Structure formats: structure tokens, C-alpha cells
Amino acid sequence: MKSINPDDFKVIGKIELSKIPTNLFNDASDNDKEEKLDKVQVKLSELQDVMYAHNKYGVLICLQGMDTSGKDSLIREVFKEFNPRGVVVSSFKTPNSTELEHDYLWRHYLALPEKGKFAVFNRTHYENVLVTRVHPEYILNENLPGIERVSAITPQFWENRMEQINNFEKHISQNGTIVMKFYFHMSKEEQRKRLLRRLEEEKHHWKFSPGDLKEREHWDEYMNYYEEAINKTSSEIAPWYIIPSDDKEMARYIVAKIIWEEMQKYTDIKEPEFDEKIKANFAEYKKQLEE
């Protein structure tokens, strides 16, 4: 199987989703993918231990994609070797009444990673320029000044939100949060198969919602808005990666490998050295414990 190069998936110029494949590496066996993922899982877990001791950076992993694109299972598989205290997962659903009393980024600030830890956003602050664009009536729930009806939501409103999101990511990255954003690029046909499986296999029944079919009717709109959001918010400090996701196992490995490779750029992440005075008395401390 071809080695994974993060730059092959990173958005560094304008992209068209319709021209990007949703499946790659068809020659890779399931065993090969599983073995490679296992190795990266362990490396990432060890890295997080060092990060915790270093206590300078937090890592924010943002996962976006259509329903059934594999976000939940990826979280389970990629981060399962982590110390449970080293990774916190937040799933952002419809804002509750408390969240609506604040600006739309407020709840995301609250979920940012502590230094030395990973945070995973399963659906992210980008819902505010994706779902709300497909369903602009949701914006009215935010009770914003000057927005009394849907017709008051202008194209400039969305431009402003993109700029606000860029500023949010710039702010947190300048204060020690490493940001990586992954879009799970799945074909409409693959989604159809996965939704059917939820109906056909009893153990997956609980995952099915009629709302998934309603959102599927807006597929083309979502693709347009995803494309626009990715093009306007992929930056060097908070890059987007387009992950071919028709093959869930391969997608998991690609994401894990990208995280690992990108984290290797932070060469200052090391375990702190002992104070020289403490180190000089190691023998004495050891003697005290042995006695």
C-alpha cells in the first residue's frame, strides 16, 4: 500500500469536491489497514503522554461529514489506545436553550482542549455555516440583532461568519492549540448503502432516523456549502484535509497517519528534564527509599 503523505490530502488551494475521489488504495487488504492503524494508535498514545508532561500544546481534531460518513467509528478506533484522561470528545448537536443565550462559538470555546490533551469535535463550529445555510430558519433561534426574518440573512452574513471562524481558529492556534480539520468525503451512493444497512441489520436499527433521509434530499446544497466553507477556511494554521471515506477502515488509517505526521513537526514537544539539583541527589533519594 502506498505510504500516506499529508500533503496529498491537505487543502492548499481551491478545490472542487466533485473532482476528488471518495475511495483510494483499493489494493490494500483489511489486515494491512488494521495492522498499520494499530501501530499508529500506539504512537499517538505515546505522543499524548509526552504532550501531557510537556504541557504547552493542546490538539483540536475537527471531524465533519454527511450522516453515515464514519466519524463515530473513527473516534472509537483511532483514539482507543489513549489514556481516557488524554482525549475528550464533544458532539455538537442542535444548540440548547443555554447555548442559544450566547454567541454561536461560545460552546466551542468551552470544549477546547487543555494543554497536553486532545479534543475531538464530532461535528464542529462549521455546522454554523453548513446546516444553517441549508436551513437558514435555524438562525432565527439565535435571536440576533437585525435578523428578524430569513430574508434579512444576506450573503454578507455568511461571509462574516467565515471570517469569524477564521479569527477563532487563528486566536486559539496562536495560544497553543494545534488545529486539524478533516472532511469525510463520501459518495452519495455509499451513503445510500449505509442507510439501507441500518434498516436491514437489527443491530444498526438504533442508528437510523427518518431525518437522515430528509437531509439527504439536500445533498447537492450541502456539497456546495462544504466546498465553499473549506475553500474559505483552510489555512496553514488550521488546515482542512479531504479524506476519501467510502472505505471506513482506510479513512481511519489516513486520519491517524496524518495526525501523527503533522505532530512530528512540533520538535519542541519533549518530556521535561529533571532539575539539575534534583538529578544530582538521585542517589540520596534512592537510598532513602531503599531504607
Structure description:
With 291 residues, this protein is of the alpha/beta class. The protein is 44% helix and 11% strand. The chain has helices at 30-54, 71-78, 106-110, 131-134, 155-174, 188-200, 210-216, 219-233, 248-263, 276-280, 282-290, and strands spanning 58-65, 87-91, 118-122, 177-185, 240-244. It has a five-stranded parallel sheet, with helices on both faces. α1 (30-54) runs parallel beside α9. The radius of gyration is 22 Å and the shape is globular.
Architecture blueprint of SSEs:
Layout: H1 30-54, E1 58-65, H2 71-78, E2 87-91, H3 106-110, E3 118-122, H4 131-134, H5 155-174, E4 177-185, H6 188-200, H7 210-216, H8 219-233, E5 240-244, H9 248-263, H10 276-280, H11 282-290
Parallel strand pairs: 1-3, 1-4, 2-3, 4-5
Helix pairs in contact: 1-9, 2-9
Q: How many whole angstroms does the radius of gyration measure?
A: 22 Å
The proportion of strand residues reads 5-15%
Q: If strands are numbered along the chain, what order do they take across the biggest sheet?
A: 2-3-1-4-5
Q: How many beta-strand segments?
A: 5
Number of helices: 11
Question: Can I get a quick summary?
Answer:
The chain is α/β, with parallel strands linked by helices and 291 residues long. It is 44% helix and 11% strand. It is built from eleven helices and five strands; from the N terminus they run αβαβαβααβαααβααα.
